[in-house]
What we know:
heterodimer; A: mainly beta; 6-stranded mixed sheet; B: mainly beta; 4-stranded antiparallel sheet; 11 strands
Amino acid sequence: GENVEQHPSTLSVQEGDSAVIKCTYSDSASNYFPWYKQELGKRPQLIIDIRSNVGEKKDQRIAVTLNKTAKHFSLHITETQPEDSAVYFCAASTRGADGLTFGKGTHLIIQP
Amino acid sequence: GAGVSQTPSNKVTEKGKYVELRCDPISGHTALYWYRQSLGQGPEFLIYFQGTGAADDSGLPNDRFFAVRPEGSVSTLKIQRTERGDSAVYLCASSLHPRDSLGYGYTFGSGTRLTVV
């Protein structure tokens, strides 16, 4: 089955700086890669996603890039703000399989 | 409803007891998923329903776990003979038909925190 690795487990950046979280996946048949943000004690919320026919997608301060050859994808947050502090999860899904395989999460800390 | 609703929000049970966790998906969402999230981990897939049928139950850890969705809306996750290792947050999510559409994005519920003592 699919295996998703996520790094780093904790990331601390100064407010206003950029943050990058990286994930790798094992199944070359995976074709959908969402990112979720989870604040303490709350539900995961989808923040951005990308499909395998696209290399990059942007939504305001958030962008995701996908390298299918290397089987890795990354989340980029620019001009970080205190409210960006949370745990971020990457995930992958394979056509024909309906569940998502999640990474272990990255705890993003924005230092004021 | 406006979102995915899960009840109860917290459940404490004794080892060996039976528990039921309920999920009420967003109206009109045909796909429903159950995940389990242990402390410090990402959600772990358990089972997926398309309509009334379990289309993929490959994530259920063993035969103590069972889920139903008899009318294609509300789903119940049932755990028999609970063990301390079952303690986790059980998350439900729903979406429009996922597989070959653009609607892959899930909406998660707030979860049920199950504690087995």
